[in-house]
Amino acid sequence: MHIVVVPDSFKECLSATKVAKAISEGIRLVVPDAEITSIPFSDGGEGLVEALISATNGKLIKTPSVDALNQPIQSFYGMLGDGKTAVIEMAAASGLELIPPVQRDPLTASTYGTGLLLKAAIEAGYTQIVIGIGGSATNDGGAGMAQALGFKLLDLHGNPIGFGGGLLGELHSIDSSEVQDQLRNVKIIVACDVENPLLGTSGATRVYGPQKGATPEMLETLEKNLTHFSQILQKEFGSNFAEIPGAGAAGGLGAGLMAFCNARIVSGFELVNQLTNLEEQISKASLVFTAEGKIDSQTPYGKTVSGIAQIAKKYQVPVIALAGMVEGGLDLLHENGITAVFAIGDKPMSLKKSISCAAGLLTKATEQIMRTLQFFGRP
To answer: Do 36 and 52 fall within a single domain?
Structure first.
């Protein structure tokens, strides 16, 4: 019996590796000799570095950076097994999870720390960099990232503007004269799981601003400033990045990476699928377990669970999806290949309690599912 366990992380709770471990423990309680292939997964957000260095026998590299509020932190990036490719997750520096809820402020939050990670990888000599841009605390269009790489963002009087989306309205021009030549010789690939444009009702600010702490008044300021920023980018670099799918990801970091770094945006799921040989493993499986913190009406659209299900459907492999919370209709997920979806909670409990018990709940739910399948002779 070959079971593939390929979960995403439970945000602000468990890493994908810990989720995979908990599910695997539940399987072995019922089928001790099961052949389990564990593939902790990420489609571009938290856990991307862990997933890719694990899949390619790479290495974790620690480096100092700053968080979204420019407070010093110890961060990291990864080296893939080829020794030539670095992998960065912006959440490791500019991530929402690093900022306590009461301190979250997209007007001042900056991607400067992400820029420091990029700078460290570039100076280390990597010829290709993969950067995952999920889980951000920022709404600055990648301006802070550009500032860390040496771009000077100047106001009308030629003075550098400050950090954060709240100050983008002061931007008048961009000076790239002191940017290192190395940046132009590095291929940068952006792993992204959303297709939001930079501006408008489905853009960076309107869709993701509220979860980063933006009030209605802040949303108006941030949208106005990003619009101005987009116009400056078009003037300086000769392209309109605002409407490109994924430009609005991570508070507009997608647009910033395309403009300042000549980066290419790709599907995070497809990229990780290729690098981990996920499809080959699923094609040989008897059963697949996947999981993420919340499964809802957005899950069928580019999320890890849906992508895994579509691969499994090609090979007629059943897929069990586990989640901390399940909301909305599941019909489309079933059509895409999910056999069944289970919320892991076994009784009413607070969010704090459910987070602290998540690993145990995953193991318990998996055990009960396996007992049911065993009773009916499958897998």
So the answer is: no
